[in-house]
Amino acid sequence: MEQRAMERNTWPSGDALSTVRSDEDRQSMDSTKNEQFVKSASSGGGGMAKSFRTVSRNSSHGKSTPVITNESIQDSIGRISYRGSKRRGSYSLSRDLGDQMLESISLSRELVGQIFGEVDSSIVAQIGDTGYRTSGREEDDNELENLGIPTDNGLKRSSIDVKIVSDGFPAKPSGANVGSPAYLLEEDSSFPFTADLMLHSTEKDKMQNMHVASEKDKQGRLPPRLDYISYLIHMAVFGILGVLTRYLLERLFGPDLLALTGDDTPLYLDLPSNMLGSFLMGWFGIVFKADLRDVSEHLVIGITTGYMGSLTTFSGWNQKMLNLSAKGHWAYAVAGIILGMLIVNECVNIGVESAAWLRRCFLQWIEKCPQRTKSKLMKLKLDTFKRHVMVMIFLLAIWVSLWCLSGALARKKLDNPTSGAVLWLGCLVGPIGVWARWYLARLNGQGLGKKGYLKWLPIGTLLANFLAACIMAALSTISKAVNTKRCTIILTGVQFGFLGCLSTVSTFVAEVYAMRQSGHPGRALSYAILTILPSFATGTLIYSIPVWTKHYN
C-alpha cells in the first residue's frame, strides 16, 4: 500500500503529463522536419539524409543529438557530388534549369516593370547611352544583369527571376547561389557543414569553364586604342544612315508628298522619324540588345547610339514648337509637346512588346533547327581579332565613300543653292554630333558633385538635348538676321546634321520608360519636365523674343 501511494505521489499530474507530451511532440516534429529538409536538399533524397542516425528523444531519458562520423561526412559529400551531377532534387534550383525556364519567358511590359522595380537608380540612368567605359564589357554586363536584361542568348537571373522560378522559396540576397543545395541548407543552423563543402563539382567545373571563356573573349578583342577607333567608325557610318533615313521620312510624310506633317501643325516634320526611332529602341535597345552584344559590342553602339540616336532628334522637335509659338500658335505648340511625348512613349512600349513576342518565336524556332543551323548561327559572332579588323576596315571604306560623296554633292549644291545641299551638309557634320553625344553619355549615372547626388538622372543625355536645342535656336536667330539663301542653307545643314545627331529622342524616351517601369513615375515625369521646359524656355529667350522684337519674317 505504501509503495502504491509513493508511485501515485511521484507520477506526474495531468498538466505536467500534457506538457511532457507536447514537448515530445514538438521535438519529434522538429526532428522529422530537419530530416525531411536535409533529404530535400541532398539531391534525390539520399546521401546526406541517410548518413544521419537520429536517436529518439524522450524527456525521461534526456535529449540525444545526431551521431555523425568522418566516414558519414565523406560518404555524404561523395553522394552529393555524384547525385548532383546525375539528377536534381525536386526542391533544389539548378542553374541550368533556371536559365532554360527564363529563356521561355517573354520580356513583356509586366515583366520589365518587375525587373526594373529592383534596379539601382544609377543603372536606370544608363539604360540608354553609357559612353566609352575603359572597363569594357564586364561593367556593361553587370549593368544588364542587374536590370534583368540578358547578356547572352538567355535571360539572366535577377532577383525577380529567382522569385518566378523558385515559386515558393523566399527572396534571398543577390550574391547568394540559389541554384545549389548548399544555399538551401544555410537556413538550417543545426546543419553541421559549411556552404563551401556542399558545392557541386559540376558547379565548380562551370565556373572554371566561364573563366576560360572570359580569357578567350579578352584575347579576341581589339587593343584599347583600336577598339576606340572602331566604335567611332561604327557610329559614323550608322549616324550617316540615320540622317539619310530622317531626311527621307520628312520628305515622305511632309507637305511635298503625303502631307501628314508640316510646319504649322502639332504634327511636326520630325515626328515620323522620332516614332520609328523610339519603336526600334524597344527592339534593339532593350529586348535584342544582349543578342546583338553576342555578335558584336560595336554593333550595339552603332545601331543604338549611331543610327537610332541620329534618326531621332530632340532639337528639331523643340525648334518646331518654338516656330509655332513665335507665330502666336501657343495652343499648337503645347499640343505638339504633349502629343509628341505621348506618341513616342507608346511607340517604345509597342516596340518592347512586339520584340518580346518575336524573340520568343525565334527561340522556339532555334530549338527545332538542326545542329548544323545552330552552328552556323554561332559563327556569326565576332570573337576573333581578325574578324574585328575586317569589319572595321569594311565600315571605314563605307564611311570614307559616304563622306567623299556627301562633300562633293554639298559643294555642287551650294554653287547653285538648293534644298538638297542641306542633306549632304548634314551627312558631313552628322558624325561629329554622334561622337559628342556619346562622349557626354559617360556622365549618365554619375550624379552631381563628389557625393554623386541625383544618380538616377541621365545628366549626359539631358545636357546633350539642352545644348543642341539652345544652339539650334541661336542658329535660327542668326539665319533670320542674315536672311540670305546661302547662309540659310549652310546653317540649316548644320542644324539638320550636327545638332540633329547631338540630340536624341530614342535614348531620352528609353530612359523615361525605364524609370516608369522601375516604379518611379515621379522621376520619369521630373526628367521629362527638366528636359522639355528648360529647352523650350531658353529657346524662347534666344529665338522667339528676337523674332518678336525685330519683326523677323
Automatic annotation (TrEMBL):
It comes from the Eukaryota. This is CrcB-like protein. It is found in: Cell membrane. Fluoride channel required for the rapid expulsion of cytoplasmic fluoride. InterPro entries: FluC. Residues 1-72 are annotated as: Disordered. GO terms for cellular component: plasma membrane. It is a multi-pass membrane protein. It comes from Dendrobium thyrsiflorum. Residues 53-72 have a biased composition (Polar residues). Keywords: Cell membrane, Membrane, Transmembrane, Transmembrane helix. The keyword Cell membrane applies. One of its GO terms (molecular function) is fluoride transmembrane transporter activity. The chain crosses the membrane at residues 228-249, 269-287, 299-317, 329-352, 389-409, 421-441, 453-476, 488-513, 525-545.
